[in-house]
Amino acid sequence: MRRLVFIIFLLACFASVLNAQNSVKISGVVRNKATGLFLSGVNIHNPATGKGTTTDEKGAWHLVVAKENKILIASHVGFRSDTINISKEAIEIFLEPEVKQIPDASIVGQIETWKVRDLPPGQMRMSVTEISKVPALFGEQDLLNSLHSLPGVQSVSEGSGYFYIRGGNADQNLILLDEAVIYNPSHLLGLFTVINPSAIQSLTLYKSGIPANYGDRLASVIEMTSRDGNLKKFTGEVSIGLLASKIFIEGPLVKDKVSILFALRRTQLDLITPFLIQKSSVIRGSGYSFLDFNGKILWNLSDRHKLWLTAYSGSDDFLLKDKEFTLSDRISWGNSLFSLNSQNKLNSRVEMRTSFNWSGYSLDFTQLYHDYYIGINTGISNFKIKHEFLFRPSSKHLIMTGVELQQYTFKPYQTRILLGNETNAIGDSIPYRAREAAIFVHYEWTPVPAFTLNTGIRLMYYQQRGPFNLLVHDQQGFPEDTIHYTKGKTIADYLRLEPRISLSWRFHEGQTLKISASRQYQPIHMVPISTTTLPLDLWIPSTSLVAPQEGTTFSLGWYPDLDRQGLEAYAEGFYRHFTNQVEFVEDQSLLDFVKDNLDRQLTFGTGEAYGMEIFIRKKIGKTQGWLGYTWSEAWRTFPEINHGKPFHPRSDRTHDFNLVLMHTFNSRWEGSLQFVYATGQPVTIPLSVYVMNGTLVQNFSERNAIRLPAYHRIDIAISRKPIKTKKLQSTWTFSIYNLYNRLNPFFVYYDLQWDYEKNLLSTRTRQISLLPVLPSITWTGRF
Amino acid sequence: MIGACLLFATLQACVSDLEIKAPATDERYIIEGWIERGGFAHVMVSRSLPYNTTVGTADLFDLLVQDAQVTVKCENQEEQLLLVQDTMYTILPIYRGYQIRGETGKAYTLEVKIADRVYTATDTLLNPIPPDSLWFSAEALNDSLGYIHIRLKDPPSIGNYYRIFTKRLGIDIDYNGISVGVLDDHLFNGSTFSFPLIRSGPSTKTKDKHFFRKGQRVVVKTAVITSRYFYFLSKVSNEMGETMSPLSFQAPTVTLMSGGALGGWGCYATVNDTLEIK
Question: CB A429: neighbour CB atoms within 10 A?
Fold first, then answer.
């Protein structure tokens, strides 16, 4: 660590020497000339130096240029490029959409969206345009699942909706939509993520070097910015696919002032299922459905002031009936959020952003068996106020400071049992409550165009508060008494300091070095209880027994300039260390949870992850795409799990390879291909079996000691684009998921059979593959 | 409709055998022993089988360890068990005692010697708790089939552990554990609590699976066990259930035997009641 600080100090001194050059920092915003909306992902390029940047999700950009270089070029797919002569330090650029069909020749040579080397360390961006070209399951474009094609992002198994980034756990990713948290990102056992891509403007992923204005998670931030409604005219989109259909409408309530956006998506699986299950089937009556809604109202108070309200609500409902057992299981889950945001530019140097938001996630599991009913509810919600203040005192300095206040309510596990006419509520009937306050300062220093230093610090104070009933235990561990904490009484509290530093240095012509180091804390925890992607994971707070998770991350990346070859690339290494990791103690059953305070069922350990990522992207020509490869290892060590021996988490993948290719045949036809390969998931499986009490009992391996076969598949898609002069623009997309029908395991189970008639005993390990070759067709109409 | 058929065809889960490279495992000795109130000790000693295999019942004889020296100790008494064919419990040979009977309040130690290795465990026989009542309720779809329900009146102090078995007279050779396996009183301490007994074990008729039938006479054996033995049995029960359950916690097997063998030794404070289903 001392060496790293020393190197950074040397680089800072070196940069100060370079500061003698005359440079100026230019900033501004880019808007769509037709709609007036901010444009993200616009490439701002200085042709004299080759230096460039891209606009953020709010259309903003800044760039340090030498004073003698007065020309900038702004370009974006679907818009005419604009050349700007710099006359002042703050510039507003309006890009005009291409209204004609794009001739083949104009696509060739066009630079698309962001340049990865111009982004801060550890940051990646994807635009909706890019995501729409990646082949998708059932033709249903999926914003978050598209992230799996980027290096450093792993999914656990077939159709997993969770993310595992650089060896972190699923709960260590902060997923935000307009500053509000999304706790469970998956629909349909993880096959889809919950956010309708039609309602999203851009997506930014921070894998390391996370700015100080984000906290509460160790591994990453996935920030989604909702799309602004069209301020000029009403437009819309209808999409009908095999699995889900959606409608999207946007337009002005007051022209150029107030816009509204509305998106609704629903699966039709539940409508089809009754016709597909035979009347004699024991599972007749089973089904699944999901529904989600995105809405946004934007009010442009003036050129400098903007106010918007974002809303999201989604729900999933899964019903399994088994007549043989007279059993009926129902799992319903969903996220909701509201976020009121304002952005106020007081002058060219000062900006304020404020967000009031609420997020909630809940899950209900009910089981009706004969005359007995059991219901389990788990959930989390939080209310957050965040205020940020941005100050650019000169072209070389940016200071961002702010405060964040949050209030959490956790319902980790509440159970109702109905026996005859009597209902019993058991488990932790009083919700856990917690508060969190954080102040942060982020400082960005760009003394010369070739050097940027980002530093930040975040101070977090966390409190678990009453009301709460804390069970006290005797020497044998049985609950013998209860301490009642009254409303507002502090039960446990933690104060944590989170320093962050990163730098980007173009040390040689076209060679950029990026370094980052950070320490972060996470006061809330999702503890997995499910071996599949069923959403049965519990969110719990830090308590007197559960300390906040701690994570330290280092990354070092090399970004060569391959613009002349029409490529961009990077190689980046990372190292992570985690402490206070949380798991349930081994061999728990669900009923064990309700017998005591939940935090007494937990055990704590450490984690470590390291790896190397390589990314090559071709952005020019008829054929574009990217290749990502990650080599990594992740380990967890818990004294009370696996006899204290280190083990791989389920997300560990030694090799992870992704290839995405997109080809434009002509003005109407586009095609794409995606190839995915990953080392098999580590699992715990039985290695032997024995007979006890007349029944077969399995003797399991050490935790995650065995690897499943490697995961791989190819997806292809071809789209017929509309003629843009028509009022209704129809796009047809034909896609094939898992082209060569690779049976990747979704879920592994162990089949024990004792045939009493033949006196034969058999044991075998089996897999369920959820997604074989899946052809699909989707029609999308835009108006 | 074509789309729907396509959807259904493609959404069906594909099940196949999983080919994985698993390391060869060491053979382990399995010891399963118990003593009931008023009864004699019974102990089975066997070896584990590798996974992904098919064997006939006859092959199970080869897994039995028939040259073990099995001893039960209680206070100053000590008895070496004999290997016998006791069809009351199993068709397989079993080590059985004839002198030391299970008595309430006493601690019993099992010692198994195989070759030069010794494996031991100790457990205590607690006070029995008889059920408050037993009754039968018929299924809605077939009123000749149904469940036996049991009502337990749990003592006021927390920390009581139960295991319940059933045996259909004239049908079952042995007692079968119910599907619930074992239960403790953390959820119903000191209260009266009832629940259905879901029958496990073999069925001659498919539709009898999980049910009892009118006209049957069923012995319900209610046993009180120690917390240590409860913990062991519940973990074994979890591992039995971890075949298809996506909610399973897969963990290395627990054992009560010292010395490296898998298995357990428990004392059952039993009460037998017979219910004639009419």
Answer: 13
